[in-house]
Amino acid sequence: MTDKTLVTVVTANRLIAETIARAIGATSEHEGYYHGNGYAVTWTNGEIIEAEYKHGEKFVMNSGQDMRQMYAHHFNFRMRNYDALLGWEKSKADESQLSVIKALWAKSSVIVNAMEPTFEGELAFLNLYWYLRMPVTVRRAWLSRLRKPLILRGVENGVYSPDKHEKWLAGELVNFFLEADAVAAENAPDIESAENNPTDEGCDVELNIVKGQTLHNMVTLWMDATMELGYDFEPTFLIAHKLYAKGLISYPYLYQNGIPGNVYNTMRRDFRVLEHNSRFGEMAKEVGWLSTRNTFHNDETSYNGHGIVTTGLHPTDLSRDEERLYNLIVRRVIEAFTPDENDFQKKARKKRKSHKKAG
Known about the structure:
By secondary structure, the chain is α/β, with parallel strands linked by helices. The protein has helices at residues 14-24, 67-74, 83-86, 90-106, 119-132, 148-157, 162-185, 218-229, 233-245, 261-270, 281-285, 320-337, 341-358, and strands at 6-11, 28-30, 33-36, 39-43, 49-53, 59-61, 75-79, 108-113, 137-140, 191-193. Helix 1 (14-24) packs across helix 6 and helix 8 crosses helix 12 (320-337).
């Protein structure tokens, strides 16, 4: 590893890194990273770099600006010290992991950003990038589901629609700048626009309002887990993220409960795995075709998240708590995709229209 021939994947924690490493053939385990097949996979142990806003500089925004450069200009970056908060010297482990990341970064022709598929994940990577200040080609792997084909595609090719991702990210960064400035000034920010400001389209989370059962998001999952399993929010959150890291469920977004069309299409295949679930298999077998009521209908962007779905992998080696929460999710997925009266009416209308055209 002397030349810049590596492709290094950076993600949030070791469990996700392990799942990604298996998928791309980086099977040799080292201190702080996995290596193999031309790849290195490493992790940050959370958000180890923090950004501090430099208040006092006036914003001048126009459509031609690189928002990542603007982010670097308006913030200072430093390693976050968790020691006082946690009561132990996490900083030593963070410094060690940061040294591993820096060494791999220096040997890489491409860095793959596989941080969490959220705006917070984008910020965590930007903080790391501008802290290191080692320019390199960056590819974004947006992994809302950790299935091998999706991991391979994300690592090798990046996001499916780069233009849409850039537009969404620019809007989110603008809103973040304005909020940071307003908080620092304790009043509304002073903004000058040289041209049209980047759009904030897609920046607000829009819940999928439907008749019938919806998919879980993190909030509704926690509510059900509290009532049925006696779990508080923190253990529910941690277990859900473990299930995601193991590739069993999609990323547990906080609010969104609808799904984009591509996720619905994969569920038509993956749903059949649920027929082998020990508790709800018979319930899944009764679902002949999947309802579309939970698909996006209002031009929502998947970059703001989607409802929690299973991934088609059969669970193995789950702890008791993981199994209980997974089954709670399985039941809701089956209920959400079970057609109701409105679905049958829509299907009948569609069938009548097709017959009229044929006639």
